[in-house]
Design brief:
This protein has 88 residues and is mainly alpha-helical. The chain is 75% helix and 0% strand.
C-alpha cells in the first residue's frame, strides 16, 4: 500500500505506513524512509537522516540501501560528517 501511495505521489500516506515499519526493523521501509529524507518527499531534505535509515536498512540486508549509502557517503559535507558522529 505504501509503495502505491508513493508512486501516486501521496508521500504523507506512504510515510505514515513506512515510518512505523522502519522503526520495527523492516529493511524495505528503512530504505524508503532514507529515500524520502534524501529527496525531501513529505519531509525536509535531511541527508544525515537519509544516511541513518539507509545504514539500518543495509545492516538489515538491503542491497539497494547499501548502494544508495555508498553514493551518499561520497558526497557528504564536512558538517554532515560531523553530525553523523553525534547521531551514531
Amino acid at each position: 500500500m505504501a509503495e502505491l501511495s508513493f508512486s501516486l505521489e501521496q508521500y504523507q500516506q506512504a510515510l505514515s505506513v513506512w515510518a512505523p515499519l522502519a522503526q520495527e526493523g523492516n529493511a524495505v521501509a528503512q530504505y524508503h524512509l532514507g529515500q524520502m529524507f534524501h529527496e525531501g518527499y513529505a519531509v525536509p531534505v535531511d541527508r544525515v537522516k537519509a544516511h541513518y535509515w539507509w545504514s539500518l536498512a543495509k545492516q538489515n540486508g538491503s542491497s539497494k540501501a547499501a548502494q544508495s549509502l555508498e553514493r551518499l557517503e561520497a558526497t557528504l559535507t564536512f558538517l554532515e560528517k560531523q553530525q553523523l558522529q553525534t547521531v551514531n
